[in-house]
Design brief:
There is one protein chain. By secondary structure, the chain is an alpha/beta fold. The chain has a single domain, classed as Vaccinia Virus protein VP39 (Rossmann fold), CATH 3.40.50. It has 6 helices and 7 strands; from the N terminus they run ααβαβαββαβαββ. A 7-stranded mixed β-sheet has the order 3-2-1-4-5-7-6. The longest helix is centred in the middle third of the chain and has 14 residues. The structure holds S-adenosylmethionine.
Length: 191
């Protein structure tokens, strides 16, 4: 991942407001374990990581942007949370195998790391993944279609995991209602 991408995100995060946790986490919080190790990948300001840490999980959060990581670090410190935020290019650094009870990804897609991500889950571990689809209803999200999911693609990228929840509404029915521009998957690694 190039320096220009890092600089772009650093500029965005310098004065960005704190985001809310992703829908995949909010709607499926009841599936999370009460303790263990959790990872947020490409965390940005780490709204998901903060939620996981507030629930008592020991959280690691990785992002390319030093500005985002520093802001997250300070926020976690001020709340006394068990959260370690690290600057890390997730495509360039090896992933430890069977290290995490929970992995969360929101609004980030790099297919080259999906196999490593699956291996990084402990047996019984839970993946919560949400990002933009290629055929949205509004223009929200990245302009490059490579960073968007094809129809049902999360299911294919993480085949072999046990699906616990999946949401992708597409253009079905009344497109003025519902949640259309993203898809989410909650899936568990077999024991
Ligand atoms: C659209 S933002 C999403 C941030 C956060 N997950 C959220 O939902 O608010 C995409 C994030 O991916 C990070 N990112 C992009 N490429 C990355 C890489 N190779 N390794 C780690 N982080 C990366 C960016 O720095 C940015 O924070």
């Amino acid at each position: 991942m190039g320096r220009s991408s890092r600089d772009k995100w650093d500029r965005i995060y310098a004065d960005a407001d704190w985001p809310v946790p992703a829908r995949v986490v909010r709607e499926n919080e009841h599936l999370l374990p009460s303790r263990g190790r959790a990872l947020e990948v490409a965390c940005g300001l780490g709204a998901n990581a903060l939620l996981l840490a507030r629930r008592g999980l020991a959280v690691t959060a990785w992002d390319l942007s030093p500005v985002a990581v520093e802001r997250l670090r300070r926020r976690a410190e001020s709340e006394g949370l068990p959260l370690r935020a690290e600057v890390r290019d997730v495509t360039a650094t090896p992933w430890p195998p069977e290290a995490w009870d929970v992995i969360v990804v929101s609004r980030f897609l790099d297919r080259s790391v999906c196999a490593a991500m699956r291996k990084a889950l402990k047996p019984g571990g839970l993946l919560l993944y949400q990002t933009f689809v290629r055929d949205p209803v509004t223009p929200a999200g990245p302009s490059n279609p490579a960073y968007r999911l094809a129809e049902n693609e999360l299911l294919r990228l993480f085949s072999g995991l046990i699906v616990r929840a999946y949401r992708e509404e597409g253009h079905c029915g009344d497109r003025c209602r519902g949640w259309r521009d993203e898809a989410y998957l909650v899936a568990q690694k077999p024991m």
